[in-house]
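Person: I have long wanted to understand how a fold can be written as tokens. Underneath my words sits a plain record pairing an amino acid chain with its backbone structure tokens. Those tokens are not coordinates but codes from a learned vocabulary of shapes. I should like you to check that the lines agree and flag anything odd. The protein I mean follows directly.
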Amino acid sequence: MKKSVIAMMFIVSVMVLAGCGGNTQSSGQAARPAEDKSDLTFIVVPKGVHPWFDEVNKGAQQEAQVLSNALGRKVVVDFRAPNTPDVAEQNTILSQAAATRPTGIAFDPDDWAANKSIVDEIRTLGIPVMIFDASAPEGSGLTSVGNDFSEQAAMASDYLANLIGRRGKVAIMRGVPTASNHEERFAAHQAALAKYPNIQVAAIGISNDNIQEAQSQAAAIMAQNSDLDGFVCCDAAAPIGIGNAIKEAGKVGRVKLVGLENQIEQLTLIKDGVMQASSCTVPRVQGSMTVLMLWQASLGVKLPAVVDTGIDFITPENVDEWIKIVQEM
């Protein structure tokens, strides 16, 4: 997670180009001549405007600069975010991106079933496409950059269960119901909490990956369940909204919250005792690795099916270190 990670990722990518590693997928694009010094443009399309995606963008932009310096050619990352998680708007952006004939496109699917046809059209143009922050749909043949979302959620649920003495009432805040990574986490939360016979899932909310919606939903859930013991969630906006609702309800410390990701807002909630922990995916590394994989795809390199950027866990014991890391990056 330190600054050196991005440079190390670049070194690893060069090793892959030299023939190291068991690659499993073809990018579907012919290699560029070694003497080609034309600009490289990679378009990255997230689900929507969100602080977590801002962190992904920072990692992508940093990696673009590393590649520019190393390759002696201009590498541009064009980060195009829909205003809200809306599949129609995302598909429009993908279509417009393809019309510019970029070097490659990466996106975080809002709804794969609705995204698939436009992605198929883009691939027929010879433009490499890959996925980040989500698992690649079965049979898609796409490379994905992300982590084990089920493991991430299970870690959070198990931590919450132990915080509340393995008994009591909890709520799960879903993210965007059509988003595969959010639904993977939701299913994993349910499975993990089901292991504890004395824990009841008393309520399920839907945040749609929006802080205000999460806050409103959490406030309503706590009003209807005065004896609620805790929350887990499936997206990066929900912990901030839930934390705000807990503060407004005067239930800091009474209602436990285990969140997701490492945004500074969440780290502050942990520091202040509003949130007890967070299971995070290190978004800047996702951005960095996404650009690296797109670059390799532009060279015709066979890519791995999955690039796992790992999971970290943030608690009051290490939150100061995480605040320093995030502020320095």
Remarks:
- The chain has eleven helices and twelve strands.
- The radius of gyration is 20 Å.
